[in-house]
TrEMBL record:
Topology relative to the membrane: Multi-pass membrane protein
GO biological process entries: phosphoenolpyruvate-dependent sugar phosphotransferase system; trehalose transport
Record protein name field: PTS cellobiose/arbutin/salicin transporter subunit IIBC
Catalytic residues in the record: 28 (phosphocysteine intermediate)
Top-rank taxon: Bacteria
GO cellular component terms, semicolon-separated: plasma membrane
Alphabetized UniProt keyword annotations: Cell membrane, Kinase, Membrane, Phosphotransferase system, Sugar transport, Transferase, Transmembrane, Transmembrane helix, Transport
Ranges for domain PTS EIIB type-1: 6-88
Pfam entry (one): PTS_EIIB
One Gene Ontology term of the molecular function aspect: protein-N(PI)-phosphohistidine-sugar phosphotransferase activity
Amino acid sequence: MAKNYAALARSVIAALGGVDNISAVTHCMTRLRFVIKDDQLIDSPTLKTIPGVLGVVRSDNQCQVIIGNTVSQAFQEVVSLLPGDMQPAQPVGKPKLTLRRIGAGILDALIGTMSPLIPAIIGGSMVKLLAMILEMSGVLTKGSPTLTILNVIGDGAFFFLPLN
């Protein structure tokens, strides 16, 4: 199904408050990212109902329009409607320090720290589970060398985590 990207671009720009309300634009894999001058001029209900727009995400002075995998075609049409001296999207000024932003920063740090450990924790748990099942079913006796090795491998994932 071919989309009319020119009409999509015109509708998105109009719903964002026009060309004069856009200070920068760029895109990622699925979204058009607009840096907006005045948030009050954005017509979010209209923006969400435009055919081809899958969703809208707003934060600070940025509005992200979710297009999907065909975002590069839509981006080309948007750029053709904007002035040639349009700069790459960069947030204007320093964002305000709010309680929500501080909480998000703490959660981002925690997630960034713990996410790489998830595969090791799951793998260690599976090995420990295997050792426990083999012992409980009587396949391996308590204190057997194979069971000891499985327990050491399973405990290795948790050795450096200060959970005690």
